[in-house]
Amino acid sequence: MRVLSILSAAIAAACLMASSAVADALHDLPSDVQKAYEGLDSKVLVGPSTLRDFKPKKGPPWTIGFASSYSGNTWRAAGMDRLMKVLVPEAKKAGLIKDVIITQSDLKDAVQIQQIRQLVDQGVDIVFVCCSNPTALNRSIKYAYDKGVPVVSYDGFVTAPEALSVTPNFVDGGYQSAKSVIEKMGRKGNLLMVSGIAGVNTSDSFDTGALKAISEYPDIKLIGTVQGNWTDQVAQVEVQKFLATHPESVDGVVIQSPEVGVIRALTQSGRPVPPISIQGSYGAACYWRQHPEIADVGYYIWPPAAEMSFAWNVVLRVLEGQGPKIQTIARPVLKYTIEDSNAQLPKDCKIDDQRWLEPKAEDWFPASLADQVFARPSDPLTWRAAK
């Protein structure tokens, strides 16, 4: 019994120390930075980063691997455009990057796992991944870490303790988006939710926040949820199928990204466009300009080019040994007005324009935030290795 008591006490002490370390990593950040972590998915890791003391085996210039999970929508295209036309050329000019190797798994976890391992075996210095299953990649991330190759996940999180996740607070994004629609509805009526991709943490986190907001309004009835796959064509088909079998009124729609597909589904079905959530596509912004009654505000939740810049900035900082303090770098969503939206649109805007509204990269991941979440912060493009 005495041995069991000692063992139990040791386990309890170890758990307490681990809990304290997690608390310290988050609570050591300034209070204004901590606010971005409020309400995050409970699976998001906020302990001390295992990459705080990471140093690359060689370089610069470095070779970077990008294991993307998908390429089939305008969001992915806008992110890739920023990467290949702006970020990579900048880093090459600064002498930091030799090459970027890109893979794409078409939403197949097993393929992405294999591709991460292949990138590591090819000799990349770091891997970054996008929008993945939170647990499926963990063994491949551990494989990379054991080989001295860090992994950064962006626009979502992974639960591998060896990884660094950089993500907006999607739970809060879902909450704020749903709340804005419900308030515009007059706090009552039938609500449709157009989700993203079930099982992807970004999508699930947004839905968690949206459902929380819905639960706060007793006169709101959620009449259905469809999967829009963050793609206008898919969302249009799925919403049209829903409308064909649900004759009741749709008084508001909470949408994860493909606003134009939803607008087309409603109009082609002879339905009015009720209040909807606005999240940055040019087409939706153009429709908003023409129909200001559909929303009071929009939210930058996942601006594709700004998100890619966020990820790339962090990738360079990790390679430079700047030392992330915490396992997840979180940032809040940004609210914007119809005036902000209109200022970015051309006068002859069109609803089929596939570009995106974007905040400035400095507004999305400001240097002031980087200074708080990295142990040895420095501008990544002007950084120089110590002699």
Question: Can you give a write-up of this model?
Answer:
With 387 residues, the protein is α/β, with parallel strands linked by helices. It folds into 2 domains: 28-168 and 303-331 and 358-373, Rossmann fold, CATH 3.40.50.2300; 170-300, Response regulator (Rossmann fold), CATH 3.40.50.2300. It has helices at 2-27, 31-34, 74-93, 109-122, 138-146, 170-184, 201-215, 232-245, 259-268, 282-290, 304-319, 338-344, 361-364, 367-373; strands at 62-68, 97-104, 126-130, 151-154, 164-168, 189-195, 220-227, 252-255, 298-300, 328-331, 334-336. The strands form 3 sheets. The chain has a 6-stranded parallel β-sheet with strand order 2-1-3-4-5-10, with helices on both faces. It has a 3-stranded parallel β-sheet with strand order 7-6-8. The longest helix is centred in the N-terminal third of the chain and has 26 residues, at 2-27. The protein is globular.
Q: How large is the radius of gyration?
A: 22 Å
Euclidean distance between termini CA atoms:
58 Å
Strand content: 5-15%
Largest sheet: 6 strands, parallel
Determine the structural class based on helices, strands and strand pairing.
alpha/beta
Q: Per the principal axes of the C-alpha atoms, what is the gross shape?
A: globular
Annotated CATH homologous superfamily of the largest domain: Response regulator
